[in-house]
Design goal:
The complex is a heterodimer of chains A (275) and B (95). Chain A has 275 residues and is mainly alpha-helical. Chain A has ten helices and two strands. Chain B starts with a helix and ends with a helix. In chain B, helix 1 packs antiparallel against helix 3, helix 2 packs across helix 3 and helix 3 runs antiparallel to helix 4. Classes of the chains: A mainly alpha (275), B mainly alpha (95).
């Protein structure tokens, strides 16, 4: 690999890690289009490298949230069963799918993410404590000096929704948080902070199943995945320090516009107009 | 996780100094052999394998914690996640 191209990829991955941690997204949403559109990698190789990066960012932030007891590990594991299964299925589909179709699907996912970022609302009620079917997934965490306690409802519906997040992750090399967080928040009545933290915990498990499939098919290139993981790790370290100082809303609006523009480029790639 | 990054950095450093061919991630046995030969591909592969294994280690830890606390339903859920990962390992053979 040319050293200048490698440097470009490290810097892009660092920017993805930085923006990802500022906006609460996995870096995959930036890494996959950058590797395919800017650096000319095939979709499958870009997705393989991105899944490794997703695991890197998830592992770092998840350990913090689990230690702080914000992640609902029980809920994350139950949803993790279906998201990892979805990740496996999604990866298998992607391995055998034409890269132009993957580019089209990625473009559609970018449009949905842009919509989600502008529209995201936190007005749904929080589920009161109590069992959800056979499992009691009630949990609590500290918000300043206040203790937030909540239960979990609609477990079956939530699992079905998370399966979609898992397929999206394995197929397109992203974390799946843009599906998992609203599913937990709006359908299952989990508070926003706990939903984000639990999603962070889950996406590592989800990306793991997908990454193993890509690895088995020889689609994770060691050099590419290594520099992407290093870049994302450095970027997310800087991002987590900056996130306390920056206001998210304006950034989200600007980033939504960027996502729509990248989606347009991915559609051009899907039509064969771009290399 | 820090071990993975140390391995990846060693791989990148070897590549920058000595060069060499770097292709797909190697399997664990090949990666160890390649790393012992001081090849960048081996160190990078070991770093990526360690990184991929990190969330799995977390699930195993959850399994042990739930089993010790006699929360067998959640221990079974942890085992199901491990089962899906095992399926992912076997999927190429099945396919």
């Amino acid at each position: 690999m040319d050293p200048l191209i490698a440097l470009g990829i490290v810097l892009t991955a660092a920017a993805a890690g930085l923006l990802g941690s500022l906006l609460g997204l996995g870096g995959g949403i930036i890494i996959v289009p950058a590797l395919t559109l800017l650096f000319g990698y095939p979709m499958q190789e870009a997705i393989g490298a991105s899944l490794v990066a997703v695991i890197a960012t998830s592992t770092g932030s998840a350990s913090y949230y689990v230690e702080e007891r914000v992640s609902n590990v029980r809920l994350g594991l139950i949803l993790g069963v279906v998201t990892s299964l979805g990740g496996l299925v999604g990866a298998m589909i992607a391995v055998y799918t034409d890269q132009y179709i993957l580019a089209l699907l990625f473009g559609l996912m970018l449009l949905y993410t842009a919509y989600y970022m502008i529209r995201s609302n936190d007005s749904a009620g929080i589920c009161p404590i109590g069992p959800s079917g056979a499992f009691d997934l009630s949990c609590s965490y500290a918000e300043g000096e206040e203790k937030v306690e909540y239960g979990v409802k609609n477990l079956g519906k939530g699992m079905a929704g998370s399966l979609v997040g898992g397929v999206e992750s394995g197929m397109l090399g992203v974390g799946g948080g843009v599906v998992n967080v609203p599913v937990m928040r709006l359908w299952m009545g989990v508070p926003m902070r706990a939903a984000c933290a639990t999603s962070n915990y889950m996406i590592g498990i989800t990306a793991l199943a997908g990454a193993i499939v890509y690895f088995q098919f020889g689609l994770i290139m060691a050099g590419l995945a290594a520099i992407v993981a290093i870049g994302v790790f450095c970027g997310s370290l800087i991002g987590s320090r900056l996130s306390k100082r920056l206001q998210g809303k304006a950034l989200k609006t600007v980033f939504s516009v960027v996502l729509v523009s990248v989606a347009a480029l991915m559609f051009l790639k899907a039509m064969g107009v771009m290399p | 996780m820090y071990i993975s990054f140390a391995l990846l950095l060693i791989g990148v450093a070897i590549y920058l100094v000595f060069g060499g061919e770097v292709g797909s991630v190697l399997g664990p046995a090949e990666a160890i052999q390649s790393a012992l030969n001081m090849e960048a591909e081996g160190w990078m592969s070991l770093g990526i394998i360690c990184l991929i294994a990190t969330p799995l280690a977390g699930v195993f830890a959850a399994l042990v914690v739930f089993a010790r606390a006699k929360e067998f339903r959640f221990a079974a859920v942890s085992l199901m996640v491990i089962g899906v990962v095992a399926l992912a390992i076997l999927v190429k053979m099945i396919a």
